[in-house]
Amino acid sequence: MLSLNLIHHLSGLMRWGWRRSLLDEKISVQESKDCFEVYALVPGLLREEVRVQSDPVGRLVITGQPEQLDNPWGITPFEKIVNLPARINPLQTSAVVSLHGRLFVRVPLERSSS
C-alpha cells in the first residue's frame, strides 16, 4: 500500500490557489488495488463550502470557499491540487465532509478495457 503525506509546502503534488490559508491542512493519500483514498482536514467549512473535482489523468482539485469571507475565525478560501500517479475514473469519485471538518475522497482507478 502506498502512503503519501503531503504538507502545505509547494511541491509537484499540490499548489495553493489563493493566499495561504490559516488551515495549513495535511493531506494523506493511500492506494489500494482498485482506488485511491484521500484524507484532508477542512476545519471550519460546511459541506457546501467544499468542492472536489477530478479528471481522468489523475488530477484531484479540492477547493474551499467560506460563505462569509470576513469571518472572525480567519478561514480563507483555498485550492489544492493533488496529482495522483495513475489514471482515475472521475465519474465514480465520491467525497464526504464530516461535521468535524474531515474530508474523505474515494477515487477509483480507471479500469483497463481489455
UniProtKB/TrEMBL annotation:
It comes from the Eukaryota. This is SHSP domain-containing protein. The keyword Lyase does not apply. GO terms for biological process: regulation of transcription by RNA polymerase II. InterPro entries: A-crystallin/Hsp20_dom, ARI3A/B/C, HSP20-like_chaperone. Keywords: Nucleus, Transcription, Transcription regulation. Pfam families: HSP20. One of its GO terms (cellular component) is nucleus. Belongs to the small heat shock protein (HSP20) family. PROSITE patterns: SHSP (PS01031). Residues 18-114 form the SHSP domain. GO terms for molecular function: DNA binding.
